[in-house]
Amino acid sequence: MKKIIILALALIAGHSSFAQQKTSHMTITLYNAHVTFSVGHKPDNMIITRDDTAQVQRLVDLVPHVKLRDQPAAYEKIVMQLLKPYYDDGWKLVASNAEFIESTNTEIFRYYFTREQ
User: Fold this and answer.
1) 39-53: per-residue pLDDT in tens?
2) Do 56 and 26 contact (CB within 8 A), yes or no?
3) Residue 18, CA distances (Å) to 10, 94, 114 in order
4) 113 near 90, Cβ under 8 Å?
5) What's the CA gap between 54 and 56, in Å, rounded?
6) Cβ atoms 114, 24 nearer than 8 A
C-alpha cells in the first residue's frame, strides 16, 4: 500500500512541475528596403521582440556581396547566420512569413520562435 501511495505522490509532483512549464515567444523581423540611393542614417533592419516586452533593434547587412546568380543562396546563408544563435540557445522556429510592400519596395520577413522554460 505504501508503494502505491508513494507512486501516486511522485506522479502528482511530476505532473505539477510539468504543468508549470512556461513557454516564451519571440519574433524576429528582417526588413530590406531595396533603395538604390540613400543619404544619412540607414534604419535598423533587424528587430527582435520577446513576449517579456524586451526589444532589440540592429542594423545588419542583408546584401549578399556576390554575383547575381549566387545571390539567393548567399541570402539564405546570411539569414541562417543571423538565426543560428537563437537555435543554439534553445529557440524553436514555429512559423515564418514574408511580405512585400510594393509602394516602398520593401521585403519583410518574420520568424516566430518558442522556447520551453
Assistant:
1) 655 666 899 999 887
2) no
3) 12, 21, 17
4) no
5) 7
6) yes
